[in-house]
TrEMBL record, chains A, B:
A single MF term (Gene Ontology): O-phospho-L-serine:2-oxoglutarate aminotransferase activity
Keyword set includes Nucleus: no
Top-level lineage group: Bacteria
Encoding gene per record: serC
Cellular compartments annotated: Cytoplasm
Catalytic activity: 4-(phosphooxy)-L-threonine + 2-oxoglutarate = (R)-3-hydroxy-2-oxo-4-phosphooxybutanoate + L-glutamate; O-phospho-L-serine + 2-oxoglutarate = 3-phosphooxypyruvate + L-glutamate
Cofactor(s) demanded: pyridoxal 5'-phosphate
Record's protein name: Phosphoserine aminotransferase
Cellular component annotations (GO), alphabetically ordered: cytoplasm
EC number: 2.6.1.52
Length: 361, 361
């Protein structure tokens, strides 16, 4: 078939221009006579690629001096464990704001290493809202505060950066990094699995403030220490070279699209198109998420009659609309609207939804 | 340029047929309307791909029942640390046979977790030979014995599997897995970074005996526990889907090539071609490695006059022969002859070497 409209939550749609470039260069990258996957990460050509990708990311996000950018492996889940290993020592505690599945998992993976305190949670609201700030119980002595600016499964997003005082703020931005401008200076550490807004799975991008790299953490192997990765320009061991390459192509594509301000506008418009379609459906479709907490990236929704779910999924797939099934933890549908999903895809989806509602209404 | 002859030690040459297939499927894999990189790892299509890749690997290696096959992230280096975390508890010790750089690194990364005993080493021979078996000081109470069947940098390879009694044998096969038949039943755990004989970097393939999965190890996050990865079919978190896909294509290619018996014959012939060229060079080229310890996969060699090294590298590269520079720890040259490097590449190399020797002799 031709290219489908892909609403996958991750691994997710990549920019078609990036895929075409990777396709064209597959057997001979940069005149090397080899695929980029076949080259040593320590060769001049790949080192240049790696440095250029980092520069583009720094430019896109406006990363201030005093931060290192790392290209790591393992997925965000591994870093749920590795962050406390690096930023805290035995007996230390850190605060976690939990607004969905991924925040819960971050707590669970940190717990073997530190006192992972839940300082705010919307569990009682079934993670369909954000916990009110006045109920957060932040500890000024915490090693850091961890939160999830966008929850991929529950479709809940912070629309500002919480003020946590002098405690370093750590953010799992896996599903909304690069989707709009962000003030990096407000964070101690930002990390993101690549497979939503950056590239293929198997890569983690991390932005970490120098003072956090200097923390002692606990005794552990060198390979787990962020300071060692930083000192070795993320080449302490063989990095995921294909992921790094595709990330660089995506960063380049974002620059040609006008950078994060332009992406922010587009993403806001895409999300509005879809949320408006719910409002205008006469109750046929609805978002379960509180209005002020709605995600621009991951949009769960339900049909007024769940008996229609199977037909919705079958008909949407037949219409070339992929991966609209909601996560089993939430049910219903979910459309993920990452950077690589164009407005046209959302327009096609909304038209399909209107036709489906007419047919089955 | 057209495709070069690629002797990179890793990331290394991939079969051209695999690259062409990946290129053709880049924008539309399996009729899905999306790249394989853009699909959920939990979707039916990718799950099938993953299972088929595992089946092919099991068939190629003849993996007996009672072993799990895992597709993990992090590179072999991370598993230098993760293996002791999983297979041993505080106060336990494990034996390490060290025959080069990677064995040293395995000890260093294990040391924060266990008593990593060096039970045999060829350090005194500058890792240009194997340590005589009669000098190994194996401890029957060790949690496991770790060794490196092929040392990528020093070019030293075991040509049989050492008998270590009832203690589980753990092998870092990163640079010689799938290069010839192997009796998996002799091992407790085999692991390999993919970027030599399997696929791109960013993937680790592990074959682990069930009883080792049942070991308690130390308290740690779920993401580090092999038993959890096994229980979740290596989808405890998002795997490196592109790496898994390419690994599957490589396994399929190996089957069409006649499997590991055929590869073993080809690899032996390729290595003989190159070692014979040293012998027949009248001393112009030589291997620093003891005859019985010479690797079939990674062949370091020196020129009789190191003042010619720069010219050798410049002229070989101009002739389309890539990545012949030796590792800085050893110096000189190195040709890596993994599965994807055809006999023709070695023939071209040997002809180049003869011409170079004539010109500069």
């Amino acid at each position: 078939m031709s290219r489908a409209w892909n609403f996958s939550a991750g691994p997710a749609a990549l920019p078609e221009a990036v895929l075409k470039r990777a396709q064209a260069e597959m057997l001979d990258w940069n005149g090397s006579g080899a695929s980029v996957m076949e080259l040593s990460h320590r060769g001049k050509a790949f080192m240049q690629l790696a440095a250029t990708a980092e520069e583009r990311l720094r430019r896109l996000l406006g990363v201030p001096v005093g931060y290192k950018v790392l290209f790591l492996q393992g997925g965000a889940t591994q870093h749920f464990a590795q962050i406390p290993m690096n930023l805290a020592a035995d007996g230390d505690s850190a605060d976690y704001i939990v607004t969905g599945h991924w925040g819960e998992k971050a707590v669970r993976e940190a717990a073997p290493y530190i006192n992972a305190r839940v300082a705010g949670t919307s569990e009682a609201a079934h993670y369909l809202d954000l916990p009110p700030r006045e109920r957060w119980t932040l500890d000024p002595a915490a090693s850091y505060v961890h939160y999830t600016p966008n929850e991929t499964i529950h479709g809940v997003e912070f629309h500002d950066v919480p003020d946590v005082g002098d405690v370093p703020l750590v953010a799992d931005m896996s599903s909304n990094i690069l989707s709009e401008p962000v003030d990096v200076a407000k964070f101690g550490l930002i990390y993101a699995g690549a497979q939503k807004n950056i590239g293929p799975s198997g890569l983690v991008v991390m932005i970490i403030r120098d003072d956090l790299l200097a923390r002692k953490g606990r005794p552990m192997a060198k390979i787990f220490r962020y300071a060692e990765h930083a000192a070795n320009d993320s080449m302490l061991n063989t990095p995921n070279t294909w992921g790094w390459y595709l990330a660089g192509l995506t960063f380049e594509w974002l620059e040609t699209q006008g950078g994060l301000a332009a992406m922010g506008e587009r993403n806001a418009r895409k999300a509005k198109t879809l949320y408006d379609a719910f409002e205008n459906s006469g109750g046929f479709y609805r978002s379960p998420v509180a209005v002020n907490a709605r995600s621009r990236m991951n949009v769960p929704f339900t049909l007024h009659d769940s008996a229609l779910d199977a037909a919705f999924l079958a008909e949407s797939e037949a219409a070339g609309l992929l991966a609209l099934k909601g996560h089993k933890a939430v049910g219903g549908m979910r459309a993920s609207l990452y950077n690589a999903v164009p407005q046209e895809a959302v327009d096609v989806l909304v038209n399909f939804m209107r036709d489906f509602a007419t047919k089955h209404g």
